[in-house]
Amino acid sequence: MGMKDAEPGTVRPGGRTARVRAAVLQAAGDSLAEGGFARLDLADIARRAEVGKTTVYRRWGTVTGLVADLLLDMAEQSLPRTETGSLLGDLKANARLVQRTLADSRQGALFKAVIAAATCEPKTAEALHRFYDIRVREWAPCVEQAVDRGELPADTDPHEVIRAVSAPLYYRLLTSGNALDEPAADRAAEAAAAAARAGVYVRREEAD
């Protein structure tokens, strides 16, 4: 399939095209962090990236197409899961990774901007959902291994446990001015681990 036949932002080429993509995504992330979704402009991003405006319009088409590709790249570039041999150790590693990302001045601002845009931009919402789906699936084996070790009840939903780790950190980011520090990350991991051990995330049959 040629580039012109592909959905904008879905091509995975190498060489010069990969360098162009990296420069444009870097510029898009900087712009998002600085001014939010509403101020994103493809021509401005092309200028920042020192790339021809026509290239940016032809490749990504729209701001939402560019943001979707940025989120895909961020998901792919995120660090792989850590395996410590215990559920709590693994969940703390996950929580600290999320905490470091959200506490970073650029990354935290970028996520706030994308989350805000996703509330009224369906394509951005889809891209954000894909981002979190990729990251949750990356870390779900930590929970599956804990079930296999007998640390957690059978039928524990791994995805729900991983989401439970991040949820308090995003809530803190979006609803308070409190520092998003390592103790907050550890508490989130401890709470999710305790709830998982108590069977809170065991899959249950839906009531008729």
UniProtKB/TrEMBL annotation:
Gene3D superfamilies, per the entry: Homeodomain-like (1.10.10.60), Tetracycline Repressor, domain 2 (1.10.357.10)
Keyword flag Zinc-finger: no
InterPro entries linked: Homeodomain-like_sf, HTH-type_TetR-like_transc_reg, HTH_TetR, Tet_transcr_reg_TetR-rel_C_sf, TetR_C
Record-annotated HTH tetR-type domain positions: 18-78
Record GO terms (molecular function): DNA-binding transcription factor activity; transcription cis-regulatory region binding
DNA-binding residues (ranges): 41-60
Listed PROSITE patterns: HTH_TETR_2 (PS50977)
Keywords in alphabetical order: DNA-binding, Transcription, Transcription regulation
Highest taxon above the source species: Bacteria
PANTHER family: HTH-TYPE TRANSCRIPTIONAL REGULATOR RUTR, TETR-FAMILY TRANSCRIPTIONAL REGULATOR
Record-given protein name: TetR-family transcriptional regulator
Biological source species: Streptomyces davaonensis (strain DSM 101723 / JCM 4913 / KCC S-0913 / 768)
